[in-house]
Design brief:
Alpha-Beta Plaits; four-stranded antiparallel beta sheet; 4 strands; 29% strand
């Protein structure tokens, strides 16, 4: 399993509309990715460990796929629409990376 991570670095005065991101942008991704995306986690930056300091990221998005090949297959038809939509919710240039999932555990 791999994780496709999209990072939106926080900068003072940056714009990131989490409501739009969750309701519209992620909706576009879900439309194209379907069951190829096995799950996702969206994290909104709240603060840093140093009290009173801004978070390092405005948002971190982790999307899980069985393989890099499955991600590429899912992303190919979606890429143009997803990239065109970025300006609608942020002025941050996103950073992306792929990681292998070494461990995943969730407790209720």
């Amino acid at each position: 399993m791999i994780t496709f991570t999209v990072k939106y670095p926080y900068k003072k005065g940056c714009r990131f509309d989490m409501g739009y991101y969750l309701s519209v942008h992620i909706g576009i991704a879900k439309k194209y990715f379907g069951n190829k995306c096995k799950g996702y986690t969206i994290l909104g930056g709240e603060s840093s460990l140093n009290e009173g300091k801004a978070p390092q990221f405005a948002c971190l998005s982790h999307l899980f796929f069985n393989s890099l090949e499955e991600f590429k297959t899912a992303m190919a038809p979606a890429e143009k629409e997803l990239l065109a939509d970025v300006k609608n919710f942020t002025d941050i240039i996103p950073e992306v990376e792929f990681s292998g999932v070494s461990m995943h555990e969730w407790q209720e």
